[in-house]
UniProtKB/TrEMBL annotation:
Keywords: Hydrolase, Protein phosphatase
The Phosphotyrosine protein phosphatase I domain, residue ranges: 7-156
Stated name of the protein: protein-tyrosine-phosphatase
EC number of this enzyme: 3.1.3.48
Lineage: Bacteria, Pseudomonadati, Pseudomonadota, Gammaproteobacteria, Chromatiales
GO function term, MF aspect, one: protein tyrosine phosphatase activity
Organism: Inmirania thermothiophila
Amino acid sequence: MSGEQGIGVLFVCMGNICRSPTAEGVFRRLLAESPLAGRVRVDSAGTHAYHVGEPPDPRAQAAAAARGIDLAGLRARVVTVADFDRFDHVLAMDRDNLRALERICPPGREDRLRLLMSFAPETGVEEVPDPYYGGSRGFQHVLDLVEAACRGLLAHLERAHAAPC
């Protein structure tokens, strides 16, 4: 998948209105200043169709905006089997969503699946918690975790796709 079409990264949570659009926005911002700018396609999706077509949760938007990240133009969608062909990295926010992705993953594409937090082992956190039923502090915590993991993901991709000397 990488090559001419670029590198594809898909962030996935349950409803695609809190964690995965936050990760998409954070990663887009980091990519803008990376040698990989213009070479990576980024999207987000949910494993459930609860919020299809809706913008990110207002609390997620407010937390992201406070850090200079605009999520307003994003809209929720559901992950599809075709996404496993379109994206090289399908990154789940937690184990429940990873299992949901594993159930629809076509044979031979399992290597694309991973937990996002695996790119930030220094945090000691394996899953991004769902802040939906909590307060604004939960959205800040999600941003902290997602920023650490997205920095690790970007470093991984920069190493893996560095231009030859």
